[in-house]
Amino acid sequence: MSVVRVNADGSLQIRARLTIPAREIELRATTSGGPGGQHANRSLTKVVACFDVAASTALSDADRELVTQRVGRQVCASSGRFRSQSANRAAALESLAHKIGEALLRQTPRRATRPTRGSQERRVEQKRARSKVKQGRRVVLD
After folding, report:
1. Which class in CATH covers the domain with range 5-104?
2. What is the per-residue pLDDT for 3?
3. Which residues, including other chains, have CB under 8 Å from residue 85's CB and lie 6 or more apart?
4. Where are the domains of the chain?
């Protein structure tokens, strides 16, 4: 899991040396919808945060290609859980940062290893025990 943080100026710190400036993140406020009557229908509390990967100057070419392959040319996150716009803005930015951070993680390839002698012996012993159980169920004809 990568370390992500939303800075006070609205920029997203994805890694120690990667910070996405706030000017590259588009924030939109909309009505949250759902139950809540007049308050939910009139208040612009839901926040949608979008990040254009292709136009970003913060990402290197390799990082840009990786994010584009995994999430697409534009990464969006929204939050409408809270009643206040500021809380939803913080939640949407946090979610966006996590999406970008997860897309940038490089998995080390698994190295194939041989089974140990002990595991091979245990496997053969389990097969022998299972065979004896099945032999005990056979009908003996005299």
Report:
1. alpha beta
2. 61
3. 29, 43, 44, 45, 47
4. 5-104
Predicted TM-score of the model (pTM): 0.70
Q: Which residue has the tokens 């803005």?
A: 89
Q: What per-residue confidence (pLDDT) applies to 1? A: 46
3-state secondary structure 44-112: CCEEEEEEECCCCCCCCHHHHHHHHHHCCCEEEEEECCCCCHHHHHHHHHHHHHHHHHHHHCCCCCCCC
Cα 48 to its chain centre, rounded Å, is: 18
The two tokens of residue 82 are: 């809270």
Task: Determine contact, residues 66/103, Cβ cutoff 8 Å.
Answer: yes
Mean pLDDT by 10 residues, the chain (142 residues): 68 83 90 74 88 90 91 92 89 91 89 95 97 91 75
Instruction: Determine phi and psi for 49, rounding to 5 degrees.
Output: -110, 125
